[in-house]
Each structure stands twice: as structure tokens, then as C-alpha cells.
Amino acid sequence: MKNTTQYNHARRGFIKASASLALGLALPSLPPFLSSALAKGTKATKTTTLNNGIAIPLVGFGTSRMQGSECQKAVENALEVGYRLIDTAQMYGNESDVGNAINSALKGGKLKRKELFITTKLSSDMSYEETLKATQESLKKLQIDYVDLLLLHRNFPQSVPMYKAMEKLRKEGKIKSLGISNFTPEVYSEFVKKCETPPVLNQMETHIFYQQKPLREVMKSYGTKLEAWSPFANGKNDFFANPTLVSIAKKHGKTPAQIALRFLVEQDIIVIPKTSKKERMIENISIFDFALDNTDREALNSLDTNEPLFKWF
Ligand SMILES: NC(=O)c1ccc[n+]([C@@H]2O[C@H](COP(=O)([O-])OP(=O)(O)OC[C@H]3O[C@@H](n4cnc5c(N)ncnc54)[C@H](OP(=O)(O)O)[C@@H]3O)[C@@H](O)[C@H]2O)c1
Fold this sequence. Notes:
Elements: H1 2-23, H2 32-39, E1 47-49, E2 55-57, E3 61-62, H3 68-81, E4 85-87, H4 95-107, E5 117-122, H5 128-142, E6 147-152, H6 159-171, E7 175-181, H7 185-192, E8 201-205, H8 213-220, E9 225-229, H9 243-252, H10 256-265, E10 270-271, H11 278-285, H12 294-301
Parallel strand pairs: 3-4, 4-5, 5-6, 6-7, 7-8, 8-9, 9-10
Antiparallel strand pairs: 1-2
Helix pairs in contact: 3-4, 4-5, 5-6, 9-10
This protein binds NADP nicotinamide-adenine-dinucleotide phosphate (NAP).
């Protein structure tokens, strides 16, 4: 019991120190083993490069099911502890709240616009003209001149004209990158043939139980990356108590959440975990100071059922 308490205390200290590092703040004095872990380079904002040459953070912050002041505060906290990618959508009804948080970080001089990576999604079926208008409304709510990434929230009857309108907005500088979400391998393969520029990423349900291997294979030739929504399966299947995750976490002195995210990020999958709690925000982004080994990977690969746990679209 004493050992567990000491371990938890040390881990909390480590998490706080990692956040300080992300913010460039002075570090508190640390026990030697923590200092050496940090010297190895704990980085909150490692990036990967999209097929258009733009860098995207590997760990972002999800905002679904949060609205109003709860959402604004959560995004402010996320920015404060080192998140730079914020994921929202028209459907979440919180673009204005996300916008307030961005605005306060930019106005306060804490961050520059170019340091942020803001994603939103077109959540309903629209014509070409309606897409232009709806994107403009999102920009207004988000209080920014451009979004870094605009996604089709799912495949709609008018996905092709919607994407064409997104191309126009990209050329005008109002969107930096275009992407999709919830496009299965079959739908993706048909859609990509009709695109002037291939989607930079496809945001899909992805976690240890549904690893999207066939989709990744199909997207490879166009350089479309996978972005994982619900990387914790939103807690389903007793996610955080999964015996494989727990045992690998103990081995590395990490948490099950950190193992689940690290497993995806090591495969170049972008993750956007959601939490309303600041301590967990720090925990979820502090995954760049250790590596899984082959035994860990084999065990985690074997959890894949290739079946979704959610079927909303
Ligand atoms: N494109 C799409 O169709 C689509 C669909 C679903 C989601 N998304 C995006 O993906 C994001 C993430 O997905 P999600 O919100 O469904 O689920 P998730 O990130 O898989 O899981 C969130 C749940 O895990 C808990 N949690 C977070 N960190 C934890 C930690 N370190 N330890 C223990 N529990 C932890 C959270 O609780 P607390 O908040 O209490 O910490 C919350 O209940 C969304 O916010 C959204 O941006 C996109």
C-alpha cells in the first residue's frame, strides 16, 4: 500500500513537471529519476506531417458533449497544459465556446494563431453554396480567419459538391487542410477518386478494440492519415481496467490511458482524447518519454476485434 501511494505521488509529480516543461515554466526540484526522464525529452506537442506538408500535433483535445462555460474552461485548461490541436464540430454546439477559449489565449498573448491547429466539421448534408455559408458561420463562431482542418463529419449524399466547396475555401486561405470522418474503406476508396486533393486524414472510431487496420491499408497510397476518435472507447468495455492495458501500464510506470494512446501514436495515428479534468489532460498528453516493446505491441494487437463499439452514422 505504501509503495502504491509513493508511486502515485511520484507519478503526479512527474505529470506536473511534464506540463511545466510543455509551457516552458521553471521546473520544481525533482528527484533524480524524474529529472532524467525529462532530460530524455518529454514533449507535449510532437507532430506528424500530413500529405500536404502541414504538421499536425499527434495528441489533440476532443470537445464533444461539452458546452458553455464547462467547454470554454476545459479548452482554456487544455491550451494551458500544452494541447495545440482542438477538435470541435458544428454538431457539438460548442464552436462559440471553443472560440471564446481560443480568443482569450490569443488576446492574452499566451499563444499565436499559427501555434494552434483548430479542426471543425460540417455536420449535415449541404449544397455547394450552403457549404460556403456554413463554413463562414463556423469561422465566425470560432472567432478566427481560417480553420486548420475542415472535415466532412460523415459521408453525405452531397459529399462531392461539399468537398468541392471546401477546395474553393482552401484556395482562398479559409481552410488549410481538408479531411473526412467516418468514411469506411469502401466509401473512402470511391470518394478519393473524385477529389482534386486527397483528404489529409480520416477521423474514425479507433482504439485497442477497433484498430482500423483494413482502412489504414486502403488510405496508405493517398497518404491519408488515421485520426482516432474515442481513443478510450469512451470508457466502454471497462476500458481503463482492461487487464492487458493495466499490466503494460504497471511495467512502464504509466497509466492504462497513457498506454492506450501511446500504442496509437507509435503507429502514426493522431489521437484526440476528451476529458473535463485538468490532471487527466496532463496525463493524456504526457506520452512521449517512453516506448512500447514488441511484447506489448503483440498483446495490444491481439485485442483488436475489427468491430465498432459505436454506430452513430
Ligand atoms: N468524428 C466523429 O464522428 C466523432 C465521434 C465521437 C467523438 N469524436 C471526437 O473524439 C473525441 C474523443 O472521443 P470521446 O469523447 O467519445 O471519448 P474518449 O476520449 O475515448 O473518452 C472520454 C472518456 O474518458 C474519460 N477519460 C479521459 N481521460 C481519462 C484518463 N486519463 N483516465 C480515465 N478516464 C479518462 C473521460 O472522462 P472525464 O471527462 O470525466 O475525464 C470521458 O468519460 C470527442 O471529444 C470528439 O472531439 C468524433
